[in-house]
Design a protein that fits this description.
Layout (H helix, E strand, L loop, with lengths): L4 E6 L5 H14 L4 E5 L5 H12 L4 H26 L2 E5 L2 H11 L4 H11 L18 E6 L2 H8 L13 H17 L4 E5 L4 H14 L6
Parallel strand pairs: 1-3, 1-4, 2-3, 4-5
Helix pairs in contact: 1-8, 2-3, 3-5, 4-7
The chain binds thymidine-5'-diphosphate.
The site of thymidine-5'-diphosphate has 14 residues, from helix 4.
Length: 217
């Protein structure tokens, strides 16, 4: 069922958002019904939590709890029903972002994040007991870009949120967090070399979808 669950990741400024619409269009043209969604967010409650997480100062545990609360609501109300219908779910960020930003960027305890991940992303976790298969994307497109290049791209683009306002050193640690996750599950990750022209990046993205049988060759 999770074969159709795709997440898109990368540091702020990596350019993932501009490619998500194109991915959705290509998948729809191939006959898929596509649910485009995002984290934190994707439901009315989760979007409220997003506003708090992005704009209110808080410690890393509080931030992680709110993000996972948003994720639980999102999984049960949007992601699981869409996958059960046979739709492709294209999610702008998922749990790898928590390991990268809260774990890597803020240095928060990865074991606690792992516990929250199991609680929130298992069927049994929905009933209060963690266990069973982990709800995880089948494919994660990681837009990998040096932090310095991302900073130049973001410079003056818009009023930054809490994360976008972080110094370059923070994003170096976020990248290291993504790299750790990718090393643990290399079969799930497709690393996109985001420091290229939009056309070249798009070609890599479409190739990753073709490799997984989501688009025909
Ligand atoms: P982003 O996805 O970049 O949206 P936009 O393009 O509209 O700015 O913004 C979400 C921010 O939330 C981003 O800076 C990363 C952060 N974030 C976390 O810190 N942890 C998480 O688990 C998730 C999903 C996002």
């Amino acid at each position: 069922m999770n074969r159709l669950f795709i997440s898109v990741e990368g540091i702020d400024g990596a350019g993932k958002s501009s490619h998500i619409d194109a991915m959705a269009a290509a998948l729809r043209a191939a006959g898929h019904v596509v649910c485009v969604t995002r984290e934190p967010g994707g439901t009315p409650l989760a979007e409220q939590l997003r506003q708090m997480v992005l704009h209110t100062p808080m410690d890393a545990l509080t931030e992680s709890l709110l993000i996972f609360a948003a994720r639980r609501d999102h999984i049960s109300r949007v992601i699981q029903p869409a996958l059960a219908r046979g739709d492709v779910v294209l999610c702008d960020r998922f749990t790898d972002a928590t390991f990268a930003y809260q774990g890597g960027g803020h240095g928060f305890d990865l074991d606690v994040l792992g516990t929250l991940e199991r609680w929130v992303q298992t069927q049994q976790g929905q009933d209060g007991q963690a266990g069973g298969a982990l709800m995880q994307p089948a494919l994660t497109l990681w837009f990998d870009l040096p932090a310095q290049v991302a900073a130049q791209r973001l410079c003056g683009a818009r009023v930054p949120d809490k994360f976008e306002a972080q110094p370059q050193a923070f994003f170096e640690k976020v990248i290291a967090g993504y790299a750790r996750r990718a090393a643990l599950e290399p079969q799930r990750f497709a690393r996109i070399h985001a420091d290229q022209t939009p056309e070249a990046v798009r070609a890599e993205v479409l190739a990753a979808l073709r490799n997984r049988g989501l688009l025909s060759a």
